[in-house]
From TrEMBL:
The chain crosses the membrane at residues 24-44, 50-73, 94-114, 120-140, 161-184, 222-239, 245-265, 286-303. Pathway: Porphyrin-containing compound metabolism; heme O biosynthesis; heme O from protoheme: step 1/1. This is Protoheme IX farnesyltransferase. The keyword Transmembrane helix applies. Belongs to the UbiA prenyltransferase family. Protoheme IX farnesyltransferase subfamily. Its EC number is 2.5.1.141. GO terms for molecular function: protoheme IX farnesyltransferase activity. The gene is ctaB. Its main location: membrane.
Amino acid sequence: MTAATPLLPPADWRDFLALTKPRVMTLVVFTGLCGMLAAPPVNGHTIHPVLGFTAILCIALGAGAAGALNQWYEADIDAVMRRTQKRPLPAGRMDRQAALHFGIGLSAFSVILMGLAVNVAAAAILTVSILFYVLVYTVWLKRRTPQNIVIGGAAGAFPPLIGWAAATGDVALLPFLMFMLVFLWTPPHFWALALFVKTDYANAGVPMLPVVAGERVTRTQIGLYTIPMALAAVLPWPLGLTGPIYGWTAIVTTAVFGALAVRVATRTTGADDRMTPEKRLFSYSILYLFVIFGALVADRWVLA
């Protein structure tokens, strides 16, 4: 006779919130909002504030749903990594089935609401972004290849496209360049993190680049990926898609990013200081996207 599996107590609302990865969601929502605000008027009209709020809500819910499904699938990995052991599933505060149902339900609701309230184009891109993050990155790539972040980075790059599509019903070159900026930003951003938590990934059996190829290769790749990222960041100005506010902001902030990336790329040994170049690059990379997307909106509204 086998012992019955103990029932977990009902999860707290804060556990469901934690499933959505709210810190990650903040950047996703911000880039989606900036994509929407930077979009040109359609027939002389900008998106109605209620529809705009609904679109951003759907982006947030879709991102949260993807985060929940990611944690449902990776509960075993999270349990052996120090930085994720306190998440609701590995900490035993929530049943996996509840997380699965929550993620699926939130995904369906966000896409249906976007399609019915805003437009089909935005709903379609939102659907692709959720499926890409869950199926392509989480299920297919993350445990199989050190290129998981390179290819999977597309998942976090969709929000500017979604925001733009919500406002205009289509996509254009500028939001595509913003997509490419986030896509190319993801490897140096995430590999900088992976360099100082590589032991966690090694213990979990996740083939992140520092674990599989070593620090030297990872540092070189951070430097190499920063070059096309910088091009994607600056290109909208010479192409006439933005004005000088965005242009100069992109040049200055990207130069700082490049300088930090060079320090990481040319570093030969680890350091004992509390704020290493890797941590500086990781921290700045988050601020970088907030500033550059904020400048995109300022450029559009100040020069309009």
